[in-house]
Amino acid sequence: MIEHLPVLAVAVSLLGSFTVVLTSLYTRKAGYPLSLSITFIQLVMAVVILMNINSGGAISYWLGGWRPPWGIEYRVDILGAYVLVIVTIFSFLATVYARKTVEKEIDPEKQPYFYTLWLLLVSGMAGVAVTGDLFNLFVFLEIASLATYALIAMAGKRALIASFNYLVLGAVGISFYLLGTAFLYAATGTLNMLDARALLTLIYDSRIVQLSFVFYFIGLAMKMALFPFHVWQPNAYEHSPSAVTVIISTALAKVNAYALFRLIFSVYTVKFFQNYGTIFELTAIVASAGIIAGSVLAIMERSLKKMLAYSSVANVGYIVLAFTLGKWGIYAAAAHLLNHSLMKAALFMVAGGFIYRLGVRRIDELEGLGRAMPLSSAAFAMAAVSMIGIPPSAGFVTKLFILLASLDTGRFVFIAVMIASSLLSLVYFWRVIEILYMKGHRERMDELPASMLYPALIMGVLSILAGILWFFSIDILDEIVIALGVV
Amino acid sequence: MEPAFALLVPFIGSLLILITGRYPDLRDTISVITAVISFLVILNISGSSLNSESVLFNIAPGIDFAFKADPLGLVFALTSSSLWILVSIYSIGYMRTLKEHAQTRFFFCFAMSLFSAFGIAFAKNLITFYIFYELLTIFTYPLVAHEESEEARSAGRRYLAYLIPSGASLLAATLITYWLTGTTDFTPGGFILGDPEIVKLVFILFLLGSAKSAFMPLHSWLPTAMVAPAPVSALLHAVAVVKAGVFGVIRIVYYVYGVDLMKELDLGVLLGIVAAFTVVMANILAIGETNLKRRIAYSTMNQLSFIILAASLLHPYGFLASVMHIPFHGYMKITLFLCAGAIAAIAGKHEVHQLDGLGKSLKFTFGAFTVGAIGMSGLPPVAGFISKWFVVLTGNIWAIAVILIASILDVVYLFPIVRNGFFRDGGGSYNELGGFLNRYMIVPLSITALFSIILFMMPGLMHISDLASIAMQEVWGNELP
Q: Most B CBs within 10 Å: which of A375, A387, A388, A400, as the mutation test of the B interface?
């Protein structure tokens, strides 16, 4: 049974999305309960998969029974399972959160299609996490992206422009990814990741191989909004429906980062980069520039959701920077895939909640909400403190790992980058906290509806607690490092 | 008992405060009870389980999240926990007299600040120390910006603008220390080693990381933070924040670097110069300050740098002076702040020149203020004399000269307040013990004044002098002169 789970985890939501379309012929109300149950089933599957993978092992599933490397292989190792769990957790929570916001923001006629696309997006993301095939990964990325473009556009008006911008840049990005795959296929003759990894060891010198990585990197950098390819992101986050912002800023952003993670450590491997240090150096410089630029742009921003979007630009920079920093860097990157999702989920859920309840988008309109809506604001404040990296929060763990990694690899300049970015994030997050709690006065009002409040609150509390919990569950990071063979 | 219990009590207490926020009487009772239990737990540890440890979990190879109740930490913890009892009683009177808003947030953050202070006191290694150091900053911010006026917000911003970057510097220093030595456990006599240039650089980073001790030029957050309510100022100055700063300096000098290394690299001299400069400059600035609380704030800077100066002498008596001045200054300074708060709450006076003749009706308040002023100037029969005398015993002529100048300046800016209060006319008449709430303020400040004198006569109270001398033996080992 276990060996079928990877494909099932993708298939249930794929079939589910068609089911929603069919049910829409009879009722418009089936979308939400179906999505909720399907994402929950996926979450359970993902947890079962994670618990059944022992270190170094992997679950391999041959699609259609074709033996890899000829057939498509789904291969879930500990890293894939971990990302699958992240994807499904945040898909599930975003679905819980979606109900009220969708009712309010989406035209009732379109709501079934919303959930159709929603489940399609979830299958795309789950597919990326489980696949062991480079071309298949492209397909799933594209499924997820196309669903996202349409979901963003569903908010109408200015979201159409935001969606179109994203579509153009996303299409360029995915084309680069396809080019990379083509070059790699030309050099190795295989699309299977494991196979490619073995074949590549002989031809690290090849210009085609090096170029293929550059294409992959550019393509995925556009997808995950790494500076300077981030321009589509602030508007897309700002104008899309609140639930869509939550799912794409947490699950989808991490899936794109995971794709790069996978390529760097499972396909090209560290040896490739040891031969071509310049590629890694350039990556680190781009990432550092993104960290600083994202933070500065966030300081200048006045809209809450856009500010959070720029903060995501900086945080993607953390993850990519961590890739280049050796063993501790992998700890940092893997931990931040989860940590950043926890924090951003809480932040975007509350930001969406403020829009839902009061229609406020600008930061200076949030005056006095700290006491008017104490629980929602507390969720925001806890996540914000974690983003700044105050110990013992989740954000602090990432910061600590990256700092240790920079010391370990002797690249002290990144200590300065991390500290600078942490201080910059203090500036832009504390401004919000100050306005929420220390300025203005509002009468006590109702909290957000339970389906929006509790996911946000849980994520907020976890973004503080995870800092401590990580140290108890550090084994999973150890196993990821061992599985990637980077000791 | 393990030191972790001392942290558990205020943590649970603060959660209860949050939950019972709607019932002010219950909430405030819980706040006082938490303070009392914390004190009893810490007193118990200091009596029966010195050097006990609690290890919670592993952070990185060689770094545990762990606590250790060592003598130095206990001195700090005893000071803060005993003063917390009095301040929490005082806060009830003060906050209710002035009908302050957001009292639940206030008491919650207060308890969490003490939680962080105990964490700092009992931290077994630099990482644990750093974690609580940052927590203290975060939980004191809502207290500093409590008034929610533009002035309070800007004070809050400045507070964070100094202390968070300073914390980052501390983190950098901590991690470099870890990288150099593979451990961060505090060891009496020091443990850091490596290239002298790097070790010196790390010391500078540590020093920048100690902005909480408000030495110049990293001091300006402290006077502006005076916009906060009086119990907060008392907490910041006498109990938690700045004491955590100087406590950190002592930890770093004697438990990370050690006497020998400090002497070898001439770092004691560097530290001494910074401290001596602040001691004198703070007092000169205090003379020109007309706001009572801000004037006392400058006096705090002076006294804190006195602690650093005494520590920088790298002499056993200097060490004793700096360690014992933590509780002594705590009691004396809290007296002054509670007096300033009581004057503000009862008479509504904030400026120094408004205080003429107030001593005639506010007898207890001005009496206590007088005790504090005598103590600050290092005169008997108040505890401040003992620590200054220890510095004299070290025989370091420069330090003695600096302290002499500082003490004269102390007299210049504190005694006129006492004189004008008692002997000039005006100011109107107030019923000091009139309201029930007033007594919540007057009783604690009388007690702290009384203890400032009792500590002079019995420095062994709460094991303080014993703990200080055990710490001294740890640090110097058999080489005591």
A: A400
